[in-house]
Every structure is written in C-alpha cells, then in structure tokens.
Amino acid sequence: MRRFAPMLLAAFALFATACEKKSQPAPSGQGAPGGQVAQPAAGGGTPAEANTLLLGEVGSLTGAQATFGVSTRNGIDLALKEANAAGGVKGKKLAVRVYDDQGKPEEAAQAVTRLITQDRVVLILGEVASSNSLAMAEKAQAAGVPMITPSSTNPTVTEKGDYIFRVCFIDPFQGFVMAKFARESLKASKVAVLQDNKSAYSLGLTEVFTRKFTEMGGKVVGTESYSQGDSDYRAQLTAIKRTAPEAIYVPGYYSEVGVIARQAKELGLNVPLLGGDGWDSEKLYELGGSAIQGSYFSNHYSPDNPDPRIQKFVSDYKAAYGGVPDALAALAYDAAKVAIDALKKAPDTSGKAIRDAIAQTKDFPGIAGNITLDEKRNAVKPAVVLKVGDGKSEYVTTVNP
C-alpha cells in the first residue's frame, strides 16, 4: 500500500481539482475572513471544525467589478476578525466560505447552491450587483437559508422572500436623492439619461430618477442605452449632445462610467455626470481622469465623516488592507455585524431562528448609517451625495428618507 499511496493521492487531487473548476472558493488568506480558514467539509456535510459557525459569501473577486468584491470581502473579514477576537458566537469561532462569481449571475447561482447543499452554511452574505443577488436569492429562499445583501439596491431582491434581507437603501430612494439634488441643488431643468439596458440596478435607477425628476418640474430630454462591457459610447453621447442637457444621469458601474466621462469630454459635452453608488471605486478616478471631476453620485457613507466610530473603522481598515474603505466595504462590514448580532440573539442556528432574529434588527449602529429593517426587510437610512474631485470624492450633503 505504501508504494501506491502517492498515486492514489495524486488521483484524488486531480479529481478534486476537476470538481472545483466552477465558482472556486477564494484562496486561503483571501477568502477565509476572520482568521478562520474555512476548510472543505468532510463528505460535503457539516464544517470539519465542530467549534466553527460557517457563513457563506459570494462576490465578484475577478471580472469587470472586481473592486466591489474585494472591498466587500475585506469588510466582512474585518467584522469577523473583531467578533472572533471577542470570543466568537455561542462559544464558536466564525469562518466564511467565499466563492468568486466573476460578476456573472449564472456563476452566483451556482456558487450559492454549493454553499447551501455542499458547505451547509448557516447564513449567506452577498452579492453587490442586484442581478447577481436576484440569482442567489431564489436559491436561498427555497432552501430556507437567510441571506443578507450588503449593497444590492434593486427593490425586487428582497421581494424574493422572507429569508432575504439588505442593509442598504433601495433604488427608489437613491433615484429620488439624485433627482432632488439635480433639480434643487444644481438647478437643472433638462437632463439626459445613459443607462445600462442589461442591468437591473441601472434600469431601476433610471425609472425612479426619470419619474421623480419629472414630478419635480424637470424634463428628461433623451434616454440612451449601452450594455455592460461596451467600450465605445460615442454614438449615444452624440445623440444626447443634440438634446442640449444640463446634466447626464449615468446610473451604471465605475468600469463603464469612467470611459463614458472621457468620451463625453472628447465630444464637447461639458456638463456634469450624475450617478449612484455603482460609481464608488478608486478605479473611477483612474478610468475617468480629469473628465469625471465635477460630477456627482449618491452613496451610502463618506469616510470623511468625523464620527469617532466611523473614523475607528476607517483607521482599522487602513491598517488591515492598506486603503481607505469605500461604501462597499462599509456596507459589507455592517451586513456581517448584523448577521453576527442575529446569530448571538437567535436561540439556535436553524434557518428560521436566524431569520427571525435578523428581522428584528432595529436602530443597529452601522458605519453606513443606523439600520432599521422594515416589513419588507429593507433598511431605512439616509444617503449622501458626493462630488468627484482629484483622486477622491468630497462630501456635499446628506438626504434623509
């Protein structure tokens, strides 16, 4: 047997690798937050460590919106590290199994299925993109496993069922915030829209912004569309230029917005762009350069807020990850904290017990605003408007619900 052991081990390793080609867990040190490495469960059942509570996370660690996934992973990591340093939950340490969905809904659905059926996690955190969260929510609801999305703002996500929650505001509020800001603060009367026609996030924001801006006496003079991954927006921007807008609402993700800003400037469209929290990434400044400066977007928090609790979070995050935490990191930290609080309060770790505990969240002190979950499992909280400056965003105002 001693002679054949290496061959058998090699064959087993090859088989295991083949089974991990889709929705791979993030490597140890990246996807094992809280200092607890989430080892594969024996036989695909309960976690190998009997003294560990295993959570699941799905995010875009690679792909077009990779900064979203990395920030989210780091925020969860920090929250779990703090919880474990304080003794864990119910005498157990917390660990998380992380899968990369590459920013694709089909990968997100496969990943969450594995978390539920193979890893048997007690709770799921994720995703950022609403389209991905929608794909996950159906699976989590059907299995009775609670899911908290840190930052998916499309209203239909939590409408998937009573096991689905969020700790961020929703698009109807975010769309209202920017419509109000454009009309009252910028005094804009004519605005054009450039939307991503394959993004539930972008389409939802477009609908609300258009309706609210019109109700406030403004006029949407034109709506053009693109698809995520496009690189040339000149045709749409040329059509928009003909309408002579005073601003352009671009409710997309930073990966496209930066390029749109540059091409708008090339065409002589010297008006501010307006957007939502999908802009929040350091990459926005790199992609947009000086062309994106002077534009505005709605967001969940500002790292410049002098609140001592927020500044401690910013300081701890910088020390751990070497950068200023964006809103995705703050919301992920808040989501993990709400999950930990619910795990502590739940009488046991069954899906129903944890679900009921999450649903009772009220006035929870989050970094991105205090969190109270309403009857639709959505967070009621304020938003901030930020102005894009040279390499960073600047706080402008806060808008309350």
Fold blueprint:
Elements: H1 5-19, E1 52-59, H2 66-85, E2 93-100, H3 105-119, E3 124-125, H4 130-143, E4 147-149, E5 164-166, H5 171-185, E6 190-196, H6 200-215, E7 219-226, H7 234-241, E8 247-249, H8 254-266, E9 273-275, H9 283-288, E10 296-299, H10 308-321, H11 327-345, H12 351-359, E11 372-373, E12 379-380, E13 383-388, E14 393-399
Parallel strand pairs: 1-2, 1-3, 3-4, 4-5, 6-7, 6-8, 8-9, 9-10
Antiparallel strand pairs: 10-13, 11-12, 13-14
Structure description:
- With 401 residues, this protein is an alpha/beta fold.
- It has two domains: 5-169 and 310-370, Response regulator (Rossmann fold); 171-299 and 384-399, Rossmann fold (3-Layer(aba) Sandwich).
- Helices cover 41% and strands 16% of the residues.
- It is built from twelve helices and 14 strands.
- The strands form three sheets. It has a seven-stranded mixed sheet, sandwiched between helices. Strands 2-1-3-4-5 form a five-stranded parallel sheet, sandwiched between helices. A two-stranded antiparallel ribbon has the order 11-12.
- The termini are far apart.
